[in-house]
């Protein structure tokens, strides 16, 4: 495992706290990270909104392009793979960061850092807003709402029609029938009814709990670096 290089520890521009070194594979799980760039970075996206700040050493070129290929890549939940250079469109921004500059780019913007010749580059990445979407809230909300609905509402415990496999399922999806229409109407009615059992505040509390957990620095057990 490669550990952070022995360099002067930069300070967070927000809290003025010194960044502690840690293993590289844990850097992106921290709210604040620092790295030393010795080579160019391949194109990629992050599933977070973040800012790069060049504190005091060297220069660094940043190239940014909008998301590509399909609308499904807008506002990603997870960081992308590295893109081959030939797959990237013309950049919307190509700029050299000077010491002290701050560059913000939103979640999903494809970006690449290029260290200029004959200089080294130090940059601090401040990341935020990962997995903080309506979809993430619903992932916590809907399972609990369904559990409560099944326990408290007899409508959710009512048996399915005995013949539902004769008109429902992918094999029947292109055919209209009275039984199919009634089945879909019932599902729609129960989905709306599910909202009445949704513990929205409790789900929001779980989102806040996760945020507090993820904001903590990673715990690294003592031991020699290898």
TrEMBL record:
Its cofactor is Fe(2+). It catalyses: N(6),N(6)-dimethyl-L-lysyl(36)-[histone H3] + 2 2-oxoglutarate + 2 O2 = L-lysyl(36)-[histone H3] + 2 formaldehyde + 2 succinate + 2 CO2. SUPFAM superfamilies: Clavaminate synthase-like (SSF51197). Keywords: Chromatin regulator, Dioxygenase, Iron, Metal-binding, Nucleus, Oxidoreductase, Repressor, Transcription, Transcription regulation. Its EC number is 1.14.11.27. InterPro entries: JmjC_dom, NO66-like. Gene3D superfamilies: 3.90.930.40, Cupin (2.60.120.650), JmjC domain-containing ribosomal oxygenase (ROX), dimer domain (1.10.10.1500). It is found in: Nucleus. GO terms for cellular component: nucleolus. It holds the Pfam family JmjC_2. It is an enzyme of class 1 (oxidoreductase). It comes from the Eukaryota. Binds 1 Fe(2+) ion per subunit. Oxygenase that can act as both a histone lysine demethylase and a ribosomal histidine hydroxylase. Specifically demethylates 'Lys-4' (H3K4me) and 'Lys-36' (H3K36me) of histone H3, thereby playing a central role in histone code. Belongs to the ROX family. NO66 subfamily. PANTHER family: MINA53 MYC INDUCED NUCLEAR ANTIGEN, RIBOSOMAL OXYGENASE 1. This is Bifunctional lysine-specific demethylase and histidyl-hydroxylase.
